[in-house]
Amino acid sequence: MSQVESPQPQDVAKPLSQSAAFLVLTINDGEDATRTARSVVASTDDLVKNVRIRSAENFFSCNVGIGHRVWDRLTGKPAPKELKPFAEIKGAKHTAVATPGDLLFHLRADNLGLIVEFERMLLEAFGTSVSAVDDVAGFRYFDTRDLLEFVDGTANASGPDAEHDTIVGAEDPAYAGGSYVVTQKYLHDLGDWRSQSTEAQEAIIGRTKFDNVELPDAGDDQQKAHKTLCTIEDEDGEHDILRDNMPFAIPGKGEYGTYFIGYSRHLWVIEKMLERMFVGAPPPLHDRILDFSTAVTGSTFFVPSRQFITDLET
Ligand code: HEM
Question: Which family does it belong to (predicted)?
């Protein structure tokens, strides 16, 4: 029997880069806007090549995600099994807000210059067919730390494990090679965070600050650390995701944040993590990281296989 080849994913399971940008767009109303947007999305690979060839020594990658609202309009196909709009999660104290987003461009590079050049060409090609609703440029902070000064990304899998955690397989054959992605922009109250003792901060994250060692999990009814709330286990074992969080900042405006991006083979896994963080496990013991970090955006996309994107035009 001949082996059926799985479609090639976009650059989902890549190592952390030095720079990144998260460009979120909505597609404007009308058939013209849809046609233009479809054609630009389909030709993303050509734009990527234009940029790559001019700086061959630098890493550059671009992942395109499509949101539920425009899936049918843009692709003319039934949506991936689990794809739905990001649903607001209201905890007793904190809310994971849902904000608009039809297209996500997750850009990663060693050099922010390449990202800016790509975005300029991309937005020129889209013209008036889209509106930019958010555009965040992230940078790599010391020792891969976030702006709360903890090493971020340690529990991520790499290599074949990362593919297994993030890439859809036989459970949705039409969308094999794709990945669900959730983004949230968090703003930190750094003054308040920095006034906490190191021990208090470590208890909130669940790891030591200096050397990144995991702390023991709290008991069932106790306040749990961030890393415990985000560990999802059931009879099938642990369900992992791939995070590529980036710090971002505009110090002159007092703006310091973490752009959360999580790729997953199953959307429900990220949804479960968010529910445990915002509602608490058990309720109302929410993730204390939220007392110092406010989610100001929240969107869900599907990043289909490379071929699916290229075929959109035909
Ligand atoms: C772990 C930071 C939001 C999922 C961690 C760790 C840090 C961190 C420092 C421990 C080191 C590591 O394993 O990477 C943050 C910050 C956030 C944020 C600063 C935003 C303010 C989120 C969100 C999710 C999430 C929204 C999921 C919906 C995870 C997971 C782990 C983790 C799955 C690994 C847990 C394990 O040890 O298995 N995060 N995080 N994080 N975080 Fe977050």
Answer: Belongs to the DyP-type peroxidase family.
Whether residue 71 contacts residue 82, with contact meaning beta carbons closer than 8 Å, is answered with no
| Cα 229 to Cα 196, 222, 278, 285, distances in angstroms | 21, 11, 10, 10
ipTM strictly over 0.95?
Answer: yes
Radius of gyration, CA atoms only, the chain: 19
CA distance 152 to 155: 8
Closest alpha carbon to 259 in 13, 21, 4: 21
Ligand 1 atom nearest 289 alpha carbon: 21
Give me the pLDDT at residue 303, please.
Answer: 98
Query: Residues 134, 146, 152, 240: which is the catalytic one?
Result: 152
For the chain, how are helix, strand and coil distributed in percent, rounded to 5?
A: 35, 25, 40
pLDDT one-digit tens code per residue, 187-232: 999 999 999 999 999 999 999 999 999 999 999 899 999 999 999 9
Residue nearest to atom 25 of ligand 1 (CA): 230
What is the spatial distance between Cα 203 and Cα 197, in angstroms, rounded to a whole number?
A: 10
Q: What percent of the chain has pLDDT over 90?
A: 91
| 39 neighbors 75 (Cβ within 8 angstroms) | no
Closest alpha carbon to 212 in 294, 278, 260, 156:
156
Distances in Å between the Cα of 274 and the Cα atoms of 18, 21, 182, 267 are 27, 23, 10, 11
Q: How many CB atoms lie within 10 A of CB 202?
A: 18
